[in-house]
Structure prediction request, 420 residues.
Amino acid sequence: MVSRTSQDIRCLNRFEVLRHLYGGDEARSRQELATATGLSFATVANLTSELLEAGVLVEAGRAGSGGGRPRALLTLNAERGALIGVDVAEASVRVELFDLALRELHVQERPLPPDLVEPAQVVQEIAAGIDAVLAATDTPAEHVLGAGVSVPGLVEREGGVSAYSPYWAWRQVPLRALLAEHVGIPLYLDNPLKASTVAEMWFGAGREVDDLVVVTLRTGVGAGFAVGGALYRGFTNSAGEWGHTCLELDGRLCRCGSRGCVEAYVGTRGVVETLRAVAPDDPLLDTPDGAGVLRALARRAADGEPVAEEVVERTGRYLGAAVANLVNLLNPEVLVLGNQVAEQLGEPLLARTRAAVDRHALAQPLRAVDLRLSTLPENAVSRGAATFALEGFLNNRELFGSVSRARASRGRGGNRTAGK
Ligand SMILES: [Zn+2]
Prediction:
């Protein structure tokens, strides 16, 4: 076990308070925040005065409380600074600029040529995207508190290294250092599974529950876990590679070099392969763009076209069997299906997945879990990446340093912690 210092705990409590202000539009009183977080009123008062001092929160009027003394309402100070979230995917780089309240200010999507494999070229695209969103909004770079970058594959977060990327056969690429040569703002590197999960923790299902599984279904497939309100990373930050667990012995070839992986069946390309198996001559198979295939399949299935319905049916069966493993292993309260495949195939895929989970999961964890589609606005990955930058800023010990004031008086609610 990692022993937490009082500063760590204080930082986690700071996240906990703020998580109840993000994602909702309304200002909250200290009393409401204490009730929502389970922290004592004194702790909340202490944390909020620090956040007010740092300009992260501002007062937003007062609310009468049934004849009692009116209570000061607190809200996020969106103007305090900007945050950037970058989603490096197989075919594009998406750069999104947010204010401190994580409201989108501007977004730019830059296509990556299919033959592009060199880290230097990807770095150039990210840097150009950042310059472009800043220029489009007249935002000086000094106003940006941090940029989070999500790259597919395995990431060594502390060192900012892309350890392994199945797309481009990258090994041990020092991506953060390469990017820092072009971008003079604090940079945070991680992968889409972690980014999607953190986005759900701050803005989606994780605002309501502490034990959460977030399944990411795009070209790459994986899962992220919030356990007791904290992001679970594993020993070397590679937890969640559920996409490369085996669904079928000697099954389809996967990009990782193995056979029968979950990703080869329920990732974007996996769905295309299922279409090929159902209807080898389907004209849709000539479409190079996977998202386009998914969109067309969803339309055809909605019209009751049998080939498309069969593809959705089979995808739901594969996904349900694999999701049942997560339900049995982790006993989550909520399991969210998100990203490209879930967005495009939507409710019909959810219904078929549910039916398959019912057949495969054990009765007790099955009863406990609420299986649902993500409700986050597009795009969970860049939003989550920006949230890493927000967390990095909130971890700043110079800004929130004075431990002398820290009397970590914890109220009811036990050791609830936010992701770090
Ligand atoms: Zn694999």
Remarks:
- The chain is about 40% helix and 20% strand.
